[in-house]
């Protein structure tokens, strides 16, 4: 990666620290974690201890008080080492958002420091077996009983499901549609919280994705975040930030694929010369490099808008759409550059290609990103 412009000494040191942790705590274990579907908790412990899991949140709650632009470069670095870790750090940041943006002072003081320190890993439960893109159709219910809420329902595709220490659960407390949804903080050890099924995925196997059952789960009144009925707004705002994270992870994954492709193309010979000397290959690499830099620029610009307090939802959708499509294209081309070696597990590019696909799906499919962008064009 070209050295990012405009970073302070402290921020450069932070990125060096991330690279160091990725090299020591992640890179040596990637093959084993992915082969055996091991959740890399030790990596998250190390990131938490280094203060890298709550980077954008205020220091008084254990955060790093860093701008989004820096946080997104950190995610890029982590995802270039292993997507499960980059995406996991992004999900962790997303699960802290509801408490930070809508929680009471007491909720923030109780729940944010352990999450920022990585002592608690979080999960975000919006999708259900019958509702993904149309999230406001969710049917998981929360009913008030005395001074508690009782939650019943099923959540689908929960990242960190079964490994998390807490779940941010979106549940229906009122009328049909978005206005009847509320957000709850549910500790994982609450009776009735069960992992029903661990999904076996195309890629990113070290990131657990699970179907979760919430069966008569009773939480105190104080575990409702925000007012009843604002849950959908919380969920959508959390996703705006989450999409920036997915965009940054996409850039990191694409960068790893480009690095692998360039290394291979310099070493592999055909017709008595390195294949990088064939224009058919070097033009492909040139396009990959250009698309990656464009994806990073779009992602950074959306992050800067957020840092400046400007509306950024449309730019986050654009960044997620462009960067994840770039990751898919670049990883596919990286396989092509490797020829037959691209299709075997000895080289990492087949894994990168399998991992890239999920980035076009999570936190709103790329059709939904186009819907968000298109709607913004229809407004004043
Ligand atoms: C590995 C993984 C991790 C995930 N982690 C989480 C998580 O932590 N928390 C969580 O809540 N969810 C999570 N998800 C769920 C993810 O957000 C959903 O899969 C995604 O939002 C799509 O929902 P769906 O799968 O129900 O597809 P559907 O909504 O059923 O969509 C099916 C197809 O129809 C298209 N489509 C739907 N509506 C429209 C429309 N209006 N216009 C055009 N096309 C449309 C979609 O783009 C898609 O191609 C995860 C998913 C995966 C695969």
Characterization of the model:
The chain is α+β, with helices and mostly antiparallel strands. Strands 1-4-5-8 form a four-stranded mixed sheet. A four-stranded antiparallel sheet has the order 2-3-7-6, with no helix packed on it. A two-stranded antiparallel ribbon has the order 9-10. Strand 9 and strand 10 form a beta hairpin. Helix 7 packs parallel to helix 9. The chain is globular. The two termini are 38 Å apart. The model has no long low-confidence stretch (mean pLDDT 97). The protein binds flavin-adenine dinucleotide. Flavin-adenine dinucleotide (FAD) binds next to strand 1, strand 3 and helix 11.
Poorly predicted segments: none
CA-CA gap between termini? 38 Å
Class from helix and strand fractions? alpha+beta
- Main beta sheet: strand number and arrangement? 4 strands, mixed
Strand order of the largest sheet: 1-4-5-8
> What percentage of residues falls in helices of 4 or more residues?
40-55%
Q: What is the H/E order?
A: HHHHHHEEEEEEEEHEEHHHH
How many helical elements? 11
Described by the principal axes of the CA atoms, the overall outline is globular
Average per-residue pLDDT, rounded, comes to: 97
Approximate strand percentage: 15-25%
Entry keywords:
380 residues, alpha+beta, four-stranded mixed beta sheet, four-stranded antiparallel beta sheet, 11 helices, 10 strands, binds flavin-adenine dinucleotide
Question: What layout of secondary structure does this protein have?
Answer:
Elements: H1 9-26, H2 30-36, H3 41-49, H4 68-81, H5 83-102, H6 105-116, E1 122-125, E2 141-145, E3 148-159, E4 166-172, E5 181-187, E6 193-198, E7 209-220, E8 224-225, H7 231-267, E9 269-270, E10 273-274, H8 279-307, H9 313-337, H10 349-359, H11 366-378
Parallel strand pairs: 1-4
Antiparallel strand pairs: 2-3, 3-7, 4-5, 5-8, 6-7, 9-10
Helix pairs in contact: 1-3, 1-4, 4-5, 4-7, 4-8, 5-6, 5-7, 7-8, 7-9, 7-10, 8-9, 9-10, 9-11
